[in-house]
């Protein structure tokens, strides 16, 4: 049956109904009564689902374990000690928990940098959870396993390799027809010039962090259409360096946002949006509109992970990945700035993914977040001991 979201307002402030048919947005505006499940959106604002462009979802059971970790600390404790102790059932549970945390916070799409060696268990979890996910496998066997996937859960390749073999790994991903993602620093000796010379930059590739990005790097990436995703909360907390959001924007680029790791950051995109706004205003010396940052968590984030035509917008013909936000009914006109500066997961009232209601009236429909956290606690204790 169709779904009719009745009586809400778009983030622009315009009153509008939204009709969803076969998982797709069929109409936005004044919609006549018809046989449909009606969602009363009175007092709510309808916006696109948020898009998390970079999250290590397998670390969901480790939430808060690295409040004072530097990057070398993280490599030792999380990648060196915890990761090898993960079993397939741990990866499955972690993906379910991560999906539940994301959906509860209005994140309808997640790019999972899946460097845990249990890709099949992760895919099974996402099939259960009902979130839109890109599973980026971190080795060639995993990449083969996710290649050719279509639908709500698709595949990519996460490239984590020394500079001398990065080009070979990227070519392998491209030969499989996979979108590719890699952590990068940029700057002198950062290797972006070599990737450019090898013809390996472009919209099929996402670079994450790029904290040492120079103006030359920024123009190179913007001109080639290479996706850039920043994770400003983790980058600041762990000492990666200044966020390159403003530098990339000055070159004509549009960076997306990610949460990265929940060992020292919340599992939502509200704080990354606010951190980006604060830093951008300080670095640009302007009062850049707060609402402009919402694109970094929606349309720009989707574009940076190769889903620019799929996610991040409320538009006819797009999959119905939608969030109904509460808390702003007292405001007239555009509320995007208010959303960025004041809202949080508690204001995520209702969430749809691909036309299916996954959170209703403030509660997840089929995932029990509290139960998943309780079950995952044992995983966190065991792998970090």
TrEMBL record:
Domain Amidohydrolase-related intervals: 48-358
InterPro entries recorded: Amidohydro-rel, Metal-dep_hydrolase_composite, Metal_Hydrolase, MTA/SAH_deaminase
Gene3D superfamilies referenced in this protein's UniProt entry, alphabetically: Metal-dependent hydrolases, Urease, subunit C, domain 1
Protein name: Amidohydrolase family protein
Family matches, as SUPFAM superfamilies: Composite domain of metallo-dependent hydrolases, Metallo-dependent hydrolases
PANTHER family: AMIDOHYDROLASE-RELATED DOMAIN-CONTAINING PROTEIN, AMINOHYDROLASE SSNA-RELATED
Keyword Hydrolase: yes
